[in-house]
Amino acid sequence: MLNKLSIFQYLLLSIVFFTTSYMCLSTHASSVAPFVGVSSFAGSFSIGDGLPAAETKVENVYALTINSKTGDLYLTDNNRVRKVSSTNNIMSTFAGTNNQVNPEDGQPAVNTPLAEPRGLEISSNGEVYIADYSTCKIKKVSSQGIMTTIAGTGPGQNNDRRLVSVYTGDGAFANETQLSFPQAIAFHPITGELHIAETQSYKIRKITLEGRIATVVGSGQKGQESPDGVLAVNAIIGAPGNIIFDSIGNMYLSDRSFHKVRKVLTNGTIVTIAGNGMSAYNGDGILAVSASLFRPSGLALSSTGELYIAESYGHRIRKVLTNGTIITIAGTGVAGYEGDGGLAVNALLDAPESIFLSSDNYLLISDFGNKRIRKISLLDGTISTIAGDGLGDGKAASVYGILRYPIDVKKGPNGILIADSGNARVRSVSNGGIISTIAGSGTNGNPQLRALRELATKAKFGTTYAITTRSDNGDVYVIDDTNNKIFKISNQDGSITAIIGDGNYGFTEDGSIAEGSSVGGLSGVALNSLGEVIFTESNRIRKILTNGTLVTISGYGNLQDSGQGFSGDGDLAQYASLSSPGRLFIHSDDIYFADQDNYRFRKIFANGTITTIAGTGYGDYGADDILATETYLARPTDIAMNSKGELIISDAKRIRKIDLNGIIVTLAGSNVAGFSGDGGPAADATFGTLGGIYLDSNDDIYVSDPDNHRIRKISLMCPTDYALNGSECIPVCFGVVSNDPSVCSGKGSCTQNNTCQCSPSYYGANCDSFNCSGISSNSTLVCSSHGVCSSPDTCNCENGYYGKNCESFNCFGVNSQNSTNVCSAQGNCTSPDKCNCKTGYLGSNCEMFNCFGVNSQNSSNVCSSQGNCTSPDKCNCKTGYFGSNCESFNCKGIKNSDSSVCSSRGQCISPDNCKCTTVNSYGVNCEFIVEGKISNITATKSNARLNDGSSIKTPYMLLVTTLSIIIMSIFLIL
């Protein structure tokens, strides 16, 4: 929202803010003025350390190896060496940092800069060796994590201060010798000497055990490769890609220049073991020496002698069997990313670079173009991804998006479009900041799409250079300047077609049909109000009419006459001379464009006349605060317009503005290239050479910063802990802006950053604390430890508790404080329905007790079945029974346990009930004895039973019985 105040006011306010301390703040939210700042909108240095390997970003993985002792995987990744733990699969940085000014030696490896490491080896004692390609050095990381240089003094420089290959001779100490861009390293299995493949000296050298450098392969000469059988040290080889050794010391090297794999025997001679020198695939199942390989790179050797080859440009993994024949084990020859979970031979790879054979029968692959590490099971042939998630699609663009030389940025149908030229894709960032790919497979190629309508995501581009969107239907137009075509991507079905270009660089006369015509030097594309496609081609601006006809708007030239120059201001544009016109912007059918090699921005009015609006024709970093037509431009690239009608331009490493009076000022950047300033004032930021720009409805500026692989955003920004609210920055308290109702826990006001003024009864830094009955809501004792203090003096009690402080509870419906009735008056209620019973009482409500071990409710057995158990061990006995357990009774006044009971001739079995047990006794108390035959009489109260089973009545029948006996005796005598 740069149009709310003048840029100078914002810059002044920015300086004031960053050079003064914060003012004292009142109880109301204190605001500060925003500043014009810069941030990274898409693209990031974040690589996912600390995450599982499959969720991280990996890029430029030239080398893979595994520590045989720990099982950890090491890989090169941009300017780092990274490690995947074998125990938890977490990715971390092992060596390297983005801080390129740190010392190179003697520091922890994670704090030491690297520059494109490409080779890795781990010694038997766990030291890690790194071939640091761009510094032309070999580094060693000790077991203590300290990095030192063991070989190489750095690259040379040419007159343009560009790094160049330098070769110095043999014999000197390795750390005093210049190396020529080391690509790979390997230890000799017997001597332990470290061998170095130098790509630009066409040699393989070694560091002897004395620390000196010596050549073992390669004469260093360019030319036709040497035939088999010559001494390797004298042989002409191409650029070596990788080197490995077998167990007896034979060396294998991939020759990327001559498309071969060669072997240096232990006797020093060199032979070819795979590759016929041709790059076109010619089949499997043939002898490896007859097979074509396309830029062989990584190598791996099995214990049985099978050789695995990463065929980088052939997008395959090949295997040379022990009988000398070659087969494919992964890849179809078509670049892409497909096939995980299936057979590797059916999967798609993209430029596999490095391979490593693990001890558990997996072949690890650096799938370079797909930015992933994949593995093939050699047991079942399946493939899967173990590290890297590609370009970050589906994730936050500013954190996980991987861009490579993004050259243009424009409005898209559903967000913002990016011409991700280095990745050969068109990317989209949604309004929610999520990045995705809408076109391009990432594989470079020359698609023939005039008749074929295929999905744009499957298309092969050379370089995606410029983009635009049709406003009425969302169709996207993209220039592929490598293949000399303009494509249209349908917003409706995602298909892609070429609207102009046959793939050949050329010129087609006006009046021709655009489709299939030859064009060249494409740079910019836009659409006018009629839907006509306007584009820049070499030194012309042309358009495709709605009927498909091609016409020129401005400039001239053909294959014989380039027409390059400067002329025509004030006249009709069709007669003007242009010099490499670049990107376009159309407003009200006026065409604004960068006339790049004329160091001007020019405008073609809707009436057809042309004029210069900025630049003098001299290329340099020009002054500000003067008329734009009087200042120099260093590299005019793109132009846009804000809502006030002011023009915003990208000029080399600066973003500049031309106001309505024609005065030019710099908004961001300087004449110094770099990457800095994110989060701070735009005027202090540095950029690389800028590309396309785009302004959204808030006048926020998006600019492609291809050298830094990012899209940068210039907008109103706030200091840390402040948030933009219209034209002011308001404080943020603990992550919540001050005008959010939930700020300060919704119980206070945010007066300044992370400073809350709390409402009554609330306290704490974020107003998240309060009391219940004088106890903090965060205390374990609050609400009697049986509830949650939800607001001041308000307890939400646990189930079973009640009362203001959750202090009350019941046991079986009786309040715990009711000692008369709770727990059957025989215990204490300690928690809801939990009774602590008195001694002798039991049951959940203390309602039960025992009498001498028998439950009081057991009427059959309690109190010897002769009474009621009224309290623990308290029996109320039936009539005739007595004793603590009602176990005692009398017979004729004598206790049942007394030896004299029942006249000592029986048992007292119940009160006054004797069972006579002695011979011939009977009677109620067993007091009678029968003489003679009659014996063993059992007496009861009602009768007596003789030993023959007959019974007699007692005692009231005594007389009758006596008389009967006398009569019977008389009868017997007679």
**Would you identify the regions where 5 or more consecutive residues have pLDDT less than 50?**
1-27, 933-942, 944-958
| CATH architecture title of one domain | 6 Propeller
Number of helices: 3
In whole angstroms, how far apart are the ends? 153 Å
InterPro entries: 6-blade_b-propeller_TolB-like, EGF, TEN_NHL
Pfam family, one: TEN_NHL
Keywords: Disulfide bond, EGF-like domain, Membrane, Transmembrane, Transmembrane helix
Description of the structure:
Disulfide bonds join 797-806, 837-846, 877-886. Residues 768-807, 815-847, 855-887 form the EGF-like domain. The chain crosses the membrane at residues 955-973. It holds the Pfam family TEN_NHL. 44% of the residues are buried. Among the domains are: 281-395, Neuraminidase; 776-842, Laminin, CATH 2.10.25; 848-882, no CATH class; 888-973, no CATH class. The chain has 3 helices and 83 strands. It is 3% helix and 38% strand. It starts with 6 loop residues before the first helix and ends with a helix.
